[in-house]
Amino acid sequence: MKDTLKIGLLGLGTVGTGVLTLLKEHQEKISQVTGMNVVIEKAFVRNLETKQAQAEEYGLSLTTSIDDILEDKEIQIVVELMGTIEPAKTYIMKALEKGKHIVTANKDLLAQHGSELVALAQKHHCDLYYEASVAGGIPILRTIANSLAADNIQQVLGIVNGTTNYMLTQMVSADKSYEEALAEAQALGFAEADPTNDVDGIDAAYKMVILSQFAFGMNVSLPQVDIRGIRGLSLDDVAMAKQLGYEIKLIGSAEQNENSISVEVAPMLVNQKHPIASVRNEYNAVFIKSAGVGESMYYGPGAGAKPTATSVVSDLITIAKNIRLATTGHMFNSYQHKTQLTSSENVFGQYYFSLDVPDTPGQFLQLTQLMTKAEVSFDQLVQQKSDGQRARIVAITHQISKAQMQQVVIAIQNTEAFQLLNVMKVIGDE
Amino acid sequence: MKDTLKIGLLGLGTVGTGVLTLLKEHQEKISQVTGMNVVIEKAFVRNLETKQAQAEEYGLSLTTSIDDILEDKEIQIVVELMGTIEPAKTYIMKALEKGKHIVTANKDLLAQHGSELVALAQKHHCDLYYEASVAGGIPILRTIANSLAADNIQQVLGIVNGTTNYMLTQMVSADKSYEEALAEAQALGFAEADPTNDVDGIDAAYKMVILSQFAFGMNVSLPQVDIRGIRGLSLDDVAMAKQLGYEIKLIGSAEQNENSISVEVAPMLVNQKHPIASVRNEYNAVFIKSAGVGESMYYGPGAGAKPTATSVVSDLITIAKNIRLATTGHMFNSYQHKTQLTSSENVFGQYYFSLDVPDTPGQFLQLTQLMTKAEVSFDQLVQQKSDGQRARIVAITHQISKAQMQQVVIAIQNTEAFQLLNVMKVIGDE
User: Fold this and answer.
1) Quick one: which residues bind L-homoserine (chains A, B) (predicted)?
2) What is the mean pLDDT of chain B?
3) Could you read off the pLDDT of A141-176 as tens digits, one per residue?
4) Where along chain A do its domains lie?
5) Given CB atoms, is B267 within the 8 Å cutoff of chain A?
6) The complex's ipTM?
7) Model's pTM, two decimal places?
8) What is the widest separation between alpha-carbon atoms in chain B?
9) A267 vs A336, which has greater pLDDT?
């Protein structure tokens, strides 16, 4: 007769239901791998009635009082699937103080209060796992923590928001406008009614904060991430990028420069030959460049009940094994490094500029002079279209620093005749 | 003062040197993660003189006597990087009998004698890790064992041989012939002087045997894998595939059907929209379709000294942690299932047939009749080119069983006027 490992669930939405289903379907396999019967004992919900049928189906009890779970000594693991900061944070902290291990999919919480929770888990010798918080079904955190421990990661590029990637794929491959693509993503249930967190890059930034912690051992805070979303991206830029051999993607980028890192989220031009360019629709991918392995990429669904539940259950299995082997209390990510940010003089990249200029002689010259002053040279320079009055010029620079890019932006903005339409980083050209 | 974990190395070629370099470069990080100083103490080599300078650089001793390592009680882990079956197998078995943990990159050995070695490791409570044996730098075995433990894998598609993928990429994108592509792969050091193992699909088959063990818990032997390589693949088929929207790739495929699996290696037509179609040159990728996560893919370099060494070192770190926590002796892959193979009546797929037929009326009809008799219907049917005497017909079927495919092949071969040029499975169309 095997031991039973009892779990308390906070929140019984689609992911919670997915966890129940997976544990039931894979009961035998999980018991074989962990040596225990892993069972959800209780679920904390807001409304007992709406969840009653489900509770009966899976044989668990429901409660609207958090203490029923926190004070239950037999419950060894708490799975938090409520989302947002409060009350999730308070509940997790109380559970840790009671010596319960935690699995959570809460990216907002981990990105903003991760260090505090990790420290508390350490203090109480508890496990705290959150694989599902980044890129849903892709086991990227575990991969970085375990398999790349002997490597030196130089760059992490992530398509870590499925909603915006779906929208961009539709804009690129079906010539849909930003508004049409957003409406479609909302109709399909990818985007919320208020799409701010997705389209403004905030959701992606949360995930990049967590990824940076794993890849570089550094705790970057959200205000230290340069964030720009895809709101209002024009089809002109999308078409121009395509014509030049690029796809526009919302990229979360974290790069190391000696002992410092820079983290940003922005729409970028990705060379069509770069592996991350082929990531379509709602899929996510994390591309890693490292000294040992070289280039690797991890691709899969970034959201959805089943993929997220799969990551939650693999965290549960990890903790179950740790409990059995009496090895709990080790950090999910034990790699720690002093956090230092790269100054904009030392962040390098190629940049795409698109400008609206008067269709008169001398505009190319003026732009060239302005760029030369910032010591910026071109890789490509294209005049795209003209209505006889105004023309559109697109320039892709060679490698320049972010500071130089900013200098050029200011110079363009100070040139009355020029209107700056967009600036985006270009990746994958080397 | 931290404990020192001493390692014996068998073979000091490029991968062995890579391991030494990584351990040196990441000394601090590894010591932080494992709580120990991980040190290569001795290396077993054939020729002392040629390796002397290297030994001095890394401060290790050399020996030409295997017993110097096997009998050294302070050496807790043996890393085998000699390749081929013997004497590697004997040395690993002796080391396990002495209670030493093993890391190896030896795919031939694991594919052919894996169960025996795993059982011996179990008997002596030793760890046996071999992440580097499949897909070099991609941590795919660990991912399946840990992160997909709560999932139900239905299909594994692998581009697991870099040499042939490089050749095929050159044939597709640069219109090079098979012979030219092979010569180029050899010049770049990807292909051996005798390329048999690569081009005939044997290397890929070894890796699929190991992957099947992890994905389905089943021990498939090499003779149970249907193996066909890319030797002599014609540019006509490559061009035709491209025109129809496919890339020809050497795919290792393992598929589950209820409680049985089928494993094969063959050139297949991959729909250009399938993620694995975009894997270029010497890169490897493993695409997994599973009930929980859905579609995921793991991409990276399949070979090379540094990527392979990175996987070896991550295995070393895993064992170091296990030793520290006194949790050694657990199987790398603990998922076990009764091995059962799917009969060819129950393996389904779409197939591409290319035929050379007389350029006379009635050929399409005859082919259609023959297919209809086997209850096979077409998705696409194209007459490609004709010299007035002979024409080339290409057909892509709907989903049929492998048995039906074989029936059609026999019927075509028995039709005197028809010459069957090629048959390949088609993937990614659903």
Assistant:
1) 192
2) 92
3) 999 988 777 788 999 999 999 999 999 999 988 889
4) 2-135+303-323, 139-299, 346-425
5) no
6) 0.90
7) 0.92
8) 86
9) A267
A144 touches chain B (CB under 8 A): no
- Best of B130, B293, B330 to mutate (most A CBs within 10 Å, chain A): B293
Q: Residue A12 annotated as binding?
A: yes
Q: What is the pLDDT of residues A360-416, one digit of tens each?
A: 888 888 999 999 999 999 898 888 777 888 999 999 999 999 999 999 999 999 999
**Catalytic residue check, B207:** yes
Closest-CA distance, B300 to chain A, in angstroms, reads 4
Q: pLDDT for A217-246, tens place per residue? A: 999 999 999 999 999 898 889 999 999 999
Provide the 3-class DSSP secondary structure of residue A136: coil
At how many degrees (to 10) do helices A27-34 and A305-324 cross? 30
Active-site option among B100, B176, B207, B249:
B207
Q: How confident is the model at residue B430 (pLDDT cuts 50, 70, 90)?
A: low
Of B137, B151, B317, the CB nearest to A310: B151
Mutate to test the interface with B, among A296, A306, A330 (most CBs of B within 10 A): A296
Residues of chain A contacting B316 with CB distance shorter than 8 Å: 150
The helix (H) or strand (E) run that includes residue A401 is strand A400-401
Residues B249 and A289: their CA atoms lie apart, in Å, by 25
pLDDT of residue A296 exceeding 90? yes
Taking only residues 325 to 344 of chain A, the set having a beta carbon closer than 8 angstroms to any beta carbon of chain B reads 325, 327, 334-336
Class of domain A346-425: alpha beta
Which is catalytic among the residues A207, A249, A402, A425?
A207
**Shortest Cα–Cα distance, B125 to chain A (Å):** 14
In this structure, what are the phi and psi dihedrals at residue B227, rounded to the nearest 5 degrees?
Answer: -115, 125
- Cβ within 8 Å of residue A38, ≥6 positions away: A4, A5, A7, A23, A30, A31, A316, A317, A320
- CB of B298 less than 8 A from some CB of A: yes
pLDDT in tens, A91-111: 999 999 999 999 999 999 999
Query: What pLDDT is recorded for position B361?
Result: 85
Quick one: CATH architecture of B2-135+303-323? 3-Layer(aba) Sandwich (3.40)
CATH number, domain B139-299, options 3.30.360.10, 3.40.50.300, 3.40.50.1100, 3.90.180.10: 3.30.360.10
Q: Is B308 annotated as a binding residue?
A: no
Instruction: Name the pairing type of β-strands B283-290 and B226-227.
Output: unpaired
SS (H, E, C) chain B: CCEEEEEEEECCCHHHHHHHHHHHHCHHHHHHHHCEEEEEEEEECCCHHHHHHHHHHHCCEEECCCHHHHCCCCEEEEEECCCCCCCHHHHHHHHHHCCCEEEECCHHHHHHHHHHHHHHHHHCCCCEECHHHCCCCCCHHHHHHHHCCCCCEEEEEEECCHHHHHHHHHHHHCCCCHHHHHHHHHHCCCCCCCCHHHHCCHHHHHHHHHHHHHHHCCCCCHHHCEECCCCCCCHHHHHHHHHCCEEEEEEEEEEEECCEEEEEEEEEEEECCCHHHHCCCCEEEEEEEECCCEEEEEEEECCCHHHHHHHHHHHHHHHHHHHHHCCCCCCCCCCCCCCCECCCCCCEEEEEEEEEEECCCCHHHHHHHHHHHCCCCEEEEEEEEECCCEEEEEEEECCEEHHHHHHHHHHHHCCCCCEEEEEEEEECCC
A and B: number of Cβ contacts within 8 A: 178
Element housing A271 (H / E) = strand A260-271
